[in-house]
Specification:
Elements: H1 3-34, H2 39-63, H3 67-75, H4 84-91, H5 102-113, H6 117-120, E1 123-124, E2 130-131, E3 135-141, E4 147-153, H7 157-165, H8 168-178, H9 184-198, H10 201-214, E5 221-222, E6 235-239, H11 246-249, H12 254-275, E7 277-279, E8 287-289, E9 295-297, E10 303-305, H13 308-323, H14 327-336, H15 348-356, E11 368-369, H16 372-383, H17 390-395, H18 407-419, E12 422-423, H19 425-432, H20 443-457
Parallel strand pairs: 5-9
Antiparallel strand pairs: 1-3, 2-3, 3-4, 4-6, 7-10, 8-9, 11-12
Helix pairs in contact: 1-2, 2-7, 12-18, 13-14, 16-18
Length: about 450
């Protein structure tokens, strides 16, 4: 890393520490000033603290984090496999953003929906259910009596992050450090496009409607409906979902954890072939679970739509590496699409061993358990420049169409490691792949097949 890069990294780390220290000092001051104060005064002090914190968050997003914060959060829930310095930096991004004040959230609702929250909705909880990187969620009830979740974007975050995304030099530098063989331009452009889309809740609403309609009535997958009358570019209102968080599911009985994992797997890969769309944010906070295997999927801000030709490439790679076990044929596909340079000088056995890992769950017709060690190995395939696959990594590239989908290797499998997920993933995949059209292989598969038959008849 150059001295300039080191100084910039130090500046970012110092900025993060400064925000944390400032927030801690502010909170301590609020507690001291609140001693002996009336409940009204304590509420006022807390509100002022939350407002200052939200302003600091917005300032930090624009002035220091921006795109790097969003990119870092994509991997912040991985706790294994990353180089220690990268892990330490990403650890700063794991916590939810502090909530903005009730007054600030009300101002956004007022500007976007034309009235005070208490007037726009029959009921409005000023305390957020959840706070994230660019917005927070409030529970409300419409005048029609529908319970809803209202996502409100922090004021100025869209402008701040979009502005920061214009600083591509820094992103190029970071990508170049992590992936020496990578041409960062198409990757950065793809990430920029997806992240800018995520800032516009109207785009998220379009994505969510697509998935909600496709899975309506599904026996295991649920997607909340968008409430159009109360949704804009900075406010997204959806029907309220209920279920257990991921942190609770990891302590459930084994059979319940296996059902949860199977549903996550079917949803992630099924969308690619069923809809030509992939929900690219396998974050544990985006799921609510039922003990019967039913999963409600939240947050469709980061979605990737695939063209028919791009889906065909996925099929060709699976056909060559998994079904035919033809490494030379696989090599031709990855060279054609730019993953490896044409005629690259790499032994066949090295290529097979490197790429086999990403298909390891489905290579054989057998039960495979996803362990934390497996998910760590997936991450190291991307970051370990000194390992046995250094020659491959120095020459490999990543086409724009595959940037977001690689989050499966970095995200979903990490969650599976926590669940101790095991299944015959090959048979489940052959149900999902349209070019194999395999029969149902599990009780969940049987119910889904029955639903699909009924849907086609309808």
């Amino acid at each position: 890393m150059s001295p300039v890069g080191s100084a910039d990294r130090a500046r970012r780390t110092a900025a993060l520490a400064k925000v944390g220290a400032s927030r801690g000092a502010d909170l301590a001051a609020v507690k001291v000033r609140g001693v002996g104060a009336s409940s009204e005064r304590k509420a006022q002090l807390q509100s002022e603290f939350e407002l200052r914190t939200a302003e600091q968050v917005a300032e930090t997003l624009g002035g220091m984090k921006g795109a790097l914060m969003k990119l870092g959060q994509m991997a912040s829930y991985l706790d294994q496999g990353l180089p220690e310095p990268v892990r330490e930096a990403l650890a700063e991004l794991q916590s939810d953003a502090p909530p903005m004040s009730a007054e600030l959230a009300a101002g956004v609702v007022r500007a976007e929906l034309g009235g005070e929250p208490e007037a726009v909705f029959a009921e409005w909880d000023p305390h957020p259910m959840a706070a994230a990187s660019i917005g927070q969620v409030h529970r409300a009830v419409t005048h029609d009596g529908v319970e809803v979740a209202v996502k409100v974007q922090y004021p100025g975050v869209d402008t701040a992050v979009a502005s920061d995304l214009e600083n591509t030099d820094l992103l190029f530098s970071v990508m170049g450090m992590l992936f020496p063989g990578l041409d960062p331009r198409p990757v950065v452009e793809e990430l920029r496009e997806r992240l800018v889309e995520e800032l516009d809740y109207r785009n998220e609403a379009v994505n969510q409607r697509l998935f909600a309609e496709a899975y309506r009535g599904h026996p295991f997958v649920a997607v909340p409906d968008v409430v159009d009358a109360h949704s804009t570019g900075r406010v997204l209102t959806t029907t309220l979902a209920h279920g257990a968080p991921f942190s609770e599911v990891v302590g459930w009985d084994d059979d319940q954890r296996q059902l949860a994992a199977e549903c996550l797997y079917r949803f992630a890969f099924g969308g690619i072939y069923r809809l030509g769309a992939f929900n690219g944010d396998p974050h544990p906070g985006n799921y609510l679970f039922g003990a019967d295997g039913r999963v409600t999927f939240l947050d469709f801000g980061l979605c990737k739509r695939f063209t028919a030709d791009e889906v065909v490439v996925f099929e060709e790679m699976i056909q060559a590496m998994v079904l035919d076990r033809d490494v030379p044929a696989f090599r031709k596909v990855v060279e054609r699409v730019g993953i490896l340079p044409a005629g690259v000088d790499l032994p066949v056995d090295v290529l097979e061993d490197y790429f086999n890992h990403f298909y390891e769950l489905v290579l054989e017709d057998q039960v495979v358990e996803v362990t934390p060690e497996y998910s760590s190995a997936s991450v190291r395939r991307f970051f370990d420049l000194g390992g046995p696959y250094a020659d491959v990594m120095k020459k490999a590239n990543l086409p724009a169409s595959m940037v977001i989908i690689q989050r499966i290797n970095l995200g979903l499998y990490a969650l599976f490691g926590d669940l101790g997920a095991r299944a015959n993933w090959r048979r489940i995949s052959e149900e999902i792949w349209p070019f194999t059209d395999g029969p149902p292989s599990t009780p969940m598969g049987e119910e889904i097949a029955a639903w699909e038959r009924a849907t086609r008849r309808a």
